[in-house]
Amino acid sequence: GAPGGPAAGDGGGSGEEEEGPLFSTEAGSESCTKKTSYANLSWFGDRGKPFTAIDTPGHDDPDGADIDSPEAREALGEIAADLHNKLRAIKKVNAILVLHNDVHSNRLNPATYTILKMVAEKFAAAGDGGDVWKHVILAYAKCNSHDVSWQASIAKKKRDLQAAVRAKIPSCKVEVPVVTLGGATVSGEGAGAMAAAGKAKEKEGFDELWTFLQTAGDLDCTKLQPFEGADVKWEKMIKAKDEAEARARASLIYIAVLAKLGGFLVFLFWRAFMLPRYVAFLLASAIGAYAVHQIVTCSGDVPRTPLFGAALALLMVNMHTVADELLILGLFVKFVGYETMAYSVRHSYRVWLEPHAGPFVDAAMEKAGPLLQAAQEQVKKLTVSVAPPAKPSAETKKNL
After folding, report:
1. pLDDT higher than 60, residue 140
2. Rounded to 5 degrees, what are φ and ψ at 93?
3. pTM of the model
C-alpha cells in the first residue's frame, strides 16, 4: 500500500509467491497508486480469512506535500472524490488503515492530516462522526524483520503519534491504535539470521491488525457526503462574503434601484399605450439612421453611443407581442445588474411589505404545507415502483 493512504491492504495477498504484488509499491518519490482500487483477498493465503482490501493513492508523496499549493489541493480533491465514489459503492468498511512511512522522524505529513480531517468531517455529516475513529488504525510501514533501527523507543513513538493526532484533529477523542508493519525480504549471506531476529515483531504487527479488523464493526458508507477540498471551502467562503457585501450594498442603493424600476415601468406604459405606432417608427428610423451613420464614419473601435442608439431604436417599436417586452426587461436587468436587482427587491420586501404581509404569507404557507406534502406522496406512489426485497447476503468478509 502507498504510504499515508487510508485503507491499504499491506501484507494481504493470495499466498502464491510466483505472482507479483497486487498493489504496487516502490521506494521512489512518486506514488504508484493513482486511483483507488480494491480486491477480494485472503489473509496471507489463508482462505478461512477473507477480506476486501481498498488501496488508495499515498498522501506522503511530493504531490501532496505542500498543502497550500493549488496543485496539492487539486490532487487531494481528485483523490477524495475518487475515494468517496468507491466507498459509496462498497457500502461499508470495517477498518481505515493509514500507513506512515517515516518511523524515525515520527511526523505525519500535513496532507495526511488533511485527509483524516476530511474523512472525519464527511462521516460526521453522515451521522457517524464519533464512530469513525473506532475504525481508524495507524501503522508504521517499512518495519522489516531484517532491520532493528525502527525498534528504538517504538512504544514512546506510538504514544507521541497518538497524542499528535488528537491534538490536530479535535473530533478524535480516542487513542487510535498504532501497529508496525513490514514484509520486505533480503537475500545474501547471513540474511536468514537477520530475518529470524525480527520475524516475531513483524508478525505481531499483522496479528494486531487482523484482530482489529475482525473486532471492528461495520462503518456505513452509504450516507457519506461528497468530499470537499480546501479549495472548495475557500470558494464557498468567498461566495458567502460576496453575498454579504451585495446585501449590504443593496440596503444602501435599493431606493435608487426602485426609482429606475419605476421609470422603466413608466417607459413601458408610455410606449404601449401613449406613443402612436407611426411616431415610434419615425423615431426608430431617425435614431437608427444616426447610429448607422456614426458606425460607418467612425475610425477604429466603434463607440458606445451609436450602439446604444441602435438598441434604443429597436426598443421604440412596439411589436404588440410579449417578446419585445421580455427583451427590454432583460436589457434593463443587465444594465442595472442581476444581483443588485435581486437583492434590492428582496430588501424592499423585507423593509416595506414583510412587516404587513408576512403574517398572511406565513399562514397561507402553513395551510398549504400539508396539501403540498400529500401531493408529493401521491406523486411518489404513482411514479416509484416497488422493488422486490433483496435476498440476505451470505457475505462475511471484512473490508479494510
Report:
1. yes
2. -135, 160
3. 0.51
Dihedral sign, CA of 107, 37, 205, 96?
A: positive
DSSP annotation of 27 reads: S
Helix (H, G, I), strand (E, B) or coil at 215: helix
Which 8-state DSSP code applies to residue 17?
T
pLDDT tens digit string along 227-245? 665 556 656 766 777 788 8
Element (H, E) at 94: none
Q: Would you place residue 213 in the very low, low, confident or very high pLDDT band (cuts 50, 70, 90)?
A: very high
Buried b (16+ CB within 10 A) or exposed e, 82-118: bbbebbeeeeebbbbbbbbbebeebebbbbbbbbbbb
Cβ atoms of 8 and 57 closer than 8 Å: no
Identity at 313, one-letter amino acid code? A
Count of helices and strands (H, E) across the chain:
10, 8
Interval 2-17 mean pLDDT: 41
User: What phi, psi does 118 have (nearest 5°)?
Assistant: -60, -45
CA 93 to chain centre: 20
Q: How far apart are CA 381 and CA 393, in angstroms?
A: 28
